[in-house]
Amino acid sequence: MDKETEHDTGARRERPWLYAWNRRLRHLQGISIRNLVVTPPPTRARGKTTDDDDIPNTLKTPSKTLSQSNNHTLHPSRSFTDLKSHSSQHDIANKPAMRPSRRKSTLFWNDPNPRTRQVKLEDITNSRMADTFFSLHCDGLDGPVYISETVDRANNPSFQSFDLNLCGPHVSRMDELTLRVWTKIGDVTEFILLVELHLHLRSLQFLGRTLESFHQPLPANSILFHFPDGVYCNLTDLPPVETSLQAAGQKVTADGTVLPSSSYDALMKLANLDECVQDALATREKLEAQIGSILRQNERLLNVASDAAAAQEKLALTKQYVATERKRVRTAVRRKEELIASIKARQEAMEQGRSAQEKTRSHLPEAQERLVSSEQLLGQNEEDTKGQLRRIAEDLLAIYPIEPIPDQPLVFTIAGLALPNSDFEGIDREVVAAALGHTAHLVYLLSFYLSVHLPYSINANGSTSFIQDPISASLPQRTYPLYPVSVQYRFEYAVFLLNKDIEYILIKQGLRVLDIRHTLPNLKYLLYVLTSGDSVIPARKVGGVRALVAGLSTPNLSRRGSVDSGASVMVPAKKWLKMSSK
Question: Is residue 366 assigned to a domain?
């Protein structure tokens, strides 16, 4: 047996907890409707039009036109003898194949136009959806005992649960009721009565603990009743089956053993308790009525007391509002005083600022004149500085002349000593050391005259000069010789640092370095740029040691008349006089 069969068998074995004669309205917890149909189906078969109400079905549509155009043409029939001459088997073999049915292409919802088909499908869906609510009525009562909420646009509406115990014992103990279902479709403004059902709770059929366990189809407008033990429905209108009192008073177990039910004494106790409860409820109602009458008699006094309490509460609230407003007024006054003081202080500051501005404005013309003269003086100083730098560069070129070697491109000599460009194989060590000493001294002097701080400091000591590297962090030594030594890489690194200093000076002057390895070419290029210009190079100003100038007029002392003294003192004095005359 498969799982579905076992599930169906288990569902059929379910039995209600309540006996049919024990069902009362107090046990009813909810109502739901399934397969709601508002428009009844047609009473005649669909076919040819019989009256004017079916005229819209005779309209010509594209699908009907296509179907009519494909009909078979009418051929003349054969004679009787011609038909007799052929056997039935031959007729069956030569019978043409029947064309497939065109029912699918002629259905009204299979219109070729998608918009028309969509509108028709929406109309079909809207015709099945309705706004629904129900009302419960009992015999002996004029109005309904319960009116449900309205469920909008639903085909299977499920309503909220309710409790009829609140209606009193007269209603909760009844086992008969009248159910009325009201519906409304589309734009209709009023609800219409769809179903009016008069039933006895004993005639309900048990479907199962839940509706999911019931797998049979339900008829149209099926009304389901929800009780604590399961779901019931009025599938048939058969009268209730009466059970004998003897069978009703007994319980049967699974093994067939009959067990006795509640005794007479227990039932009498329950009846007495019910009477006590009903007496208590009646007493409560009497007390409620008495209290209501007393309140109605003393309504004027109660209203006066209520008005007095309301007035006192209003007075307290008014006092609270007054205190709050007074606090706000004090805060506003204090804020106003602060703003007045602030405005006054600002006005005084503005007056002081105006006076200072007027005083400054009176000195402005004089300051502008001084500014113009200062700008002129600054421009003159800049021109003089450039001229002095040109003169110093000329002097340095005269002291350390850098000249090219014929037939050797980019190879120069400094003070007549050849210095190769970073290639020190097969060289004269003493000549290279002297040339590097002159180069280091020249770079050292240029750093002072151009106010450039060298990243790698130079100690110019002639042919034993050296350079320091304070920047690199992973070097075991900081001092490197600018003369050939036994450790070749230390000498080559020193030349590299010297070239970096020259590159740094060129960058500070706004010049571009093409190759850092060209020591003397780069230095020659720097001096060439420094000495370039159209103006006349200014002369050196007389200054320094005054004794050199004053020595011309001093009397001859110990060695004043000697040849060495004249060579060392008189010759420079003539040069200075010649330069001062220029």
Answer: no
